[in-house]
Amino acid sequence: MIGFFIALISGALMSIQGVFNTQVTKATSIWVASAFVQLSALAVCLAAWAVSDRSSFAGLFKVEPKYMLLGGAIGAFITYTVIKSMDMLGPAKAVMLIVISQLIVAYVLELFGWFGVEKQPLEGRKIVGMIIAIAGVIIFKWN
Description:
Blueprint: H1 2-27, H2 30-53, H3 71-89, H4 91-112, H5 124-141
Helix pairs in contact: 1-2, 1-3, 2-3, 3-4, 4-5
């Protein structure tokens, strides 16, 4: 149950962050805003590490396969695309499309067992759920 609430908080924070980042971009530029977001995230992560975790950064050299270390680089492009989509579509439409995209990609990752994710069988009810979610986006977008 705690995972459910953490996911809800994550979604709320992502929406708020996207709005904040879009406003910062209006006063600077998209890459300045993105760099600041990543830099401030680094500062928060290092502070949290210093007071709670203290595990060795040497563990990063043990990560296999090495491409799994690209999460931060992907994060920079996530920041960029969230800012651009919110600016062009508005927060509600952008977030709905972002969530639908996340859902579809996550399910494909599970179906094929890519990147170390446990492979899951194709289930009709999950396909129906995605179709309903996509229909919801269409209804919301086209008044």
